[in-house]
Design brief:
By secondary structure, this protein is α/β, with parallel strands linked by helices. The protein has one domain: 3-Layer(aba) Sandwich (Rossmann fold), CATH 3.40.50. It is 31% helix and 29% strand. It contains 5 helices and 9 strands, in the order E-H-E-E-H-E-H-E-E-E-E-E-H-H. A 9-stranded mixed sheet has the order 2-1-3-4-9-8-7-5-6, with helices on both faces.
């Protein structure tokens, strides 16, 4: 079976719906907990970077180790699918910037794609990305223009969280309690289903494009 590395940054933020996609495709996810000091070797192997409640250009010492690991892997040509904090780390590695927003963007949020598609997605972030050189903007919201970008065929950054399914939201709400701005029960099952459909198509395209890099 093919394998795919995934970097997790926080105990309450796991692969979520990405695990469902991988299981359906016969892909084995190798999950590495960067917050516990676990990273794969620097290589050209494709990788998914998840989010987490940390500053992308500061934060704990293990995050600096991950920044160095990511830079080395990008130098070797690694394909990257990066979400929220991951998308910020990817942008910084490729010459972009990250800045604090006037106010955070949370909960279900409509996102408009460059191809005219609209999708309601889950958000929870206080920072925004200024895109790296040569990046193509793929999606925007009213409050945050840089919702999704691409640098070349195999490097995607998403500011929103398509991997958060109903179980993910319940886990985050239980962990962060009153700090969490995410919806409580009942979950919007139709919205989650629409996002999962989008995630599957998007990951399929990225995985196919990445197949020549590993």
């Amino acid at each position: 079976m093919p394998t795919l590395n995934l970097i997790q940054h926080h105990p309450a933020e796991g692969p979520g719906a990405i695990a469902e996609w991988a299981a359906a495709r016969g892909v084995t996810l190798n999950v590495f907990r960067a917050d516990l000091g676990h990273l794969p070797p620097v290589s050209a192997a494709p990788v998914i970077l998840l989010g987490g409640p940390y500053e992308s250009h500061a934060g704990p010492a293990w995050l600096e180790a991950e920044r160095q690991w990511l830079a080395g892997s990008l130098d070797q040509g690694a394909a990257v699918f990066a979400i929220c904090l991951g998308a910020q780390l990817l942008a910084l590695s490729l010459g972009g910037h990250v800045r604090r927003m006037d106010r955070s963007e949370t909960g279900w949020t409509p996102v408009m794609f460059a191809d005219g598609q609209r999708l309601k997605v889950l958000e929870w972030h206080e920072d925004a990305i200024d895109l790296p050189p040569d990046a193509q903007l793929l999606a925007s919201s009213d409050r945050c223009r840089q919702q999704m970008y691409r640098v070349g065929p195999t490097r995607l950054g998403l500011q929103f969280h398509p991997e958060w399914n109903a179980e993910s939201v319940a886990t985050l709400n239980a962990h962060f309690a009153d700090e969490s701005p995410l919806p409580r029960e009942p979950q919007d099952s139709a919205a989650h289903a629409a996002v999962f459909d989008w995630l599957q198509v998007t990951l399929d395209g990225w995985w196919a494009a990445s197949s020549g890099t590993h």
